[in-house]
């Protein structure tokens, strides 16, 4: 065996990474030293062995090689590049004569071509064309397909078909360093990251490259609000969505329209949020004022918030001034002159009233309130001039828009500064469609992130729902079937996330007469508040129509819902299906509207369940099924041999039954068909004193 050691004759080392602060002009001029070169290849006059080539000689620090095999021009160009060189570029008569004298063949490809642009010849190396030596009558582009150049052995040149296969001359600098990526030294760079790459090719055939990074502190940054996820009832027009303006910063201070500069016909008022405000010296009608502002690089002022409104009102020394709001395009539909959405107003009481049908333009009073004024009035006016740092919404709905359920929107803002930097940011607004397929009025919590309905048990409904975003219609998930004058247990479990368990407020409605609302007599059926689960017994009225209807449950944080159709900040609403079966139908029955929609006189008050009776132990188990149960329930455990007692208790703690069991069996069946409807506790007592208690619902 033997070892082969390959020495790299030349290597290149780039400067270290560069970090540059953003200058007042929004960027920085960045320069750096040339890369350093190390290597052992020092003799440029002796050719190197390159497979497929014969060394021709060296001239002016460049080596020349002639191929051993012919190739098309395109293949020749690729082979030269792969070997660290390029098809020969001839820039003088001396170089041309040197090469032609070395040719022992009739002709060979060189790097000149007009492939990209007919008649516009260029060197494949990118060097400028400073010398030519055409054969008489050439180039002639014979048959329209001669785009590549050959050098004849007499030194003259001819354009030839590129598909011809000729031998070719490769040129290689003895030590050629070039920048192959990134900005040039001394460039002005705006904020961002740049990578600069250099490459070296030496006469010994070595190729090496290095890179370094330039980080220029961003001259302009813009940060949009986070994505907004909200919801609206499916049968509603939508939901009003607002958001804060993006956060913008820039290091640019060389602003061409700096604040306070003199503008003929105006007095400078000051700056607010990067914008400059001027008050006119003379009065004008609103259309004249609008034209004057635009002629001076601004517009009649646009007021987008209370703070901006107060700022301008405090600077007014006269009674009022025109601002850029009008409803000339559509009566009653006021708009800003620059296209901004009308997200803020501060009308004087009773305004706008379009008195006499000719008040279409808005004035700002010195107390900050607004009034629509006669079109022919001449007032002084406020001009707003964008400053060095400006933010414009370029896509998506305006803040304060009503967005329909089931819609998705992308909002994009653009920031510009006085140094010419431009940055965009975007965020999404997603409006979920909350099903209200049962046709009832919408009700929902605007947020259920912290407080939501965990589960509901009523009759045959035993639904673990969890957080559903403020509203959920479960009317298609099965119905609770009820009978007149019959009692049914109700249990409501609150859910909490990110907060400690907190008192929440429950209200329950049942649309007994199936008229599509919950506003009739006795339809408000239960209420209660607490931290833990709530329970009670709901008794159906004696008079019921047979049919299918809806139960509405509202769990609200901070107080009771005051309406079954309420939209509220925190909590959740859920709708369930209920079937009235075997009803006692009274003919010619009329429905009387309830006088007090939410009277507690007929509604039952729910009780808060104590959680102290539940004593789950990891070493023991107990399973009870079915639950709810009407006839026979099964109690099952893997630890029956250690059980001493199984007892059934009423909710008030009274012992109902001491259950017999066989220690050799893992389950025991218990007939509860004779017990009244309600909630009960089953306690299993083990020999070590451990007590496991489970809550069951008996429904008879």
Q: Would you give an account of this structure?
A:
- With 700 residues, this protein is mainly β.
- Helix content is 6%, strand content 43%.
- The chain contains four helices and 52 strands.
- Strands 33, 36, 37, 39, 40, 42, 43 and 44 form an eight-stranded mixed beta sheet that branches. A five-stranded antiparallel beta sheet has the order 35-34-38-41-45, with no helix packed on it. Strands 2-16-15-13 form a four-stranded mixed beta sheet, with no helix packed on it.
- The longest helix has 10 residues, at 73-82.
- It is flat.
Keywords for this entry:
single chain; five-stranded antiparallel beta sheet; 52 strands
Overall geometry comes to: flat
Largest beta-sheet characterization: 8 strands, mixed
Q: Distance between the terminal alpha carbons, to the nearest Å? A: 94 Å
Q: Would you tell me the overall average pLDDT?
A: 84
Assembly state here?
A: single chain
Secondary structure class reads mainly beta
Count of runs of 4 or more consecutive helical residues: 4
